[in-house]
Amino acid sequence: MENTRCFANRFSDYKGALIPGQGAENIVVATIDKILKNVPIDVRDCDGGLYDGPAGVAYMLYHVSECPLFSEHRDVYLKTAKQVIDVSVRYVDAEPDKNMRAAFLLGGAGVYAVAALIYKALGLADFVKPLSKFRNLWDVCAPINFLECGSDELFVGRAGYLCAALVLKQKLGFEILSRDQIKSICQAIIDSGKQYAKRKRKPFPLMYSYYGTEYLGAAHGLSSVLQMLLSYQDVLSEAEKDLVWQSVDFLMNQEQNCNWPPELGAIIERENELVHWCHGAPGVAYLFAKAYLIKKKPQYLDTCIRSGELVWQKGLLKKGPGICHGVAGSAYVFLLLYRLTGNSKYIYRAQRFAEFLFTEEFKAGSHSVSSIYSLFEGLSGTVCFLVDLSQPDKSEFPLFSVFV
């Protein structure tokens, strides 16, 4: 029976040699040209934030401009990035719903964060403007029930706000929020998770829901919430840290054959399983990578390695080239594993997935994507991956810092 979610992986596995230089620079430049001819730069087209709006294209241009291989394009890419992000900033400045302004991947917080990075890269002193707009959002998401649909997840909730602050700290080299601000947001996440787990009589200390669903994956679920709490564990009390680690181990035990169901308690149907960054092992792996980097326990690394094996088998996704539920998102797991282990096998596997993106089989058999130029669903995310494949020691899934 043909798998409806992924292509068969017909590549032979690593035999000790990488694929010689794939000349990705030309492909990257050509793909960027194509994206820029088609990306809408009108304030009416700025919905979708970093996820599938033009702001994500601006981030991609910033990311490419940071890579030495593309230094001759740096100025043009950064100036274009500024044009695109400025329109997105105008759009979110006018957003009447302050909760949407505080959203990371779908709203204002992410747009302001990326604007600050682009301005700083251009040497503009007024990078502090978007930065202070970003900082002023912390008190929007600090109250425990700031969003009815679920206050804590990555796209619009508190975990996302912390994630944006982490990216800023990593790229700018200083902490954007005060210790007290970070602490109050972490506190709200923990209190919210404790209350939910207690109310729903969960056998573990922290749980969350988004629109009534108890997601586990990186997009809206437990794994990225816990990942952010680990990223800021130095502001937590010993008792709070304990709750977080108990929850990490609880999630580790939810594994079914190297994968995680999209929601708590679901049984994975093998022929129909989700192997995506958003739902499943390719996103959950980042939590266990973070856990391993902190505690150095081999079982956390083993969990990441098993995720990588599943991705090698089932990660050539038919849903397109993107990072959320596409081939580039799968391939980023190999770059993560390379950074954790130093094993070149993972660079080879990422190379093979990159190669597959340009085959006739992929072009003919993958689903058409409505936002084909976007960061999370389309080609901008693919460009970030190809750039990172050329510098694997610095590679990292876009806007999802593990190595901070």
Structure description:
The protein is mainly alpha-helical and 404 residues long. 54% of the residues lie in helices and 0% in strands. The chain has 18 helices and no strands. The chain starts with 23 loop residues before the first helix and ends in a 14-residue tail after the last helix. The model has no long low-confidence stretch (mean pLDDT 96).
Brief write-up:
With about 400 residues, the chain is an all-alpha fold. The protein is about 55% helix and about 0% strand.
Question: Helices, strands, pairings?
Answer:
Blueprint: H1 24-38, H2 49-52, H3 54-65, H4 74-93, H5 98-101, H6 108-121, H7 128-135, H8 138-141, H9 158-172, H10 179-199, H11 222-231, H12 238-252, H13 281-295, H14 298-314, H15 327-341, H16 345-356, H17 360-365, H18 379-390
Helix pairs in contact: 1-18, 3-4, 3-6, 3-18, 4-6, 6-7, 6-9, 9-11, 11-12, 11-13, 13-14, 13-15, 14-15, 15-16, 15-18
* Alpha plus pi helix count: 18
Shape: globular
Global Rg: 20 Å
Largest sheet: none
What sequence of helices (H) and strands (E) makes up the elements? Answer: HHHHHHHHHHHHHHHHHH
Mean pLDDT: 96
What is the count of β-strands?
0
Could you estimate the helical fraction of the residues in percent? 40-55%
Given the helix and strand composition, which structural class is it?
A: mainly alpha
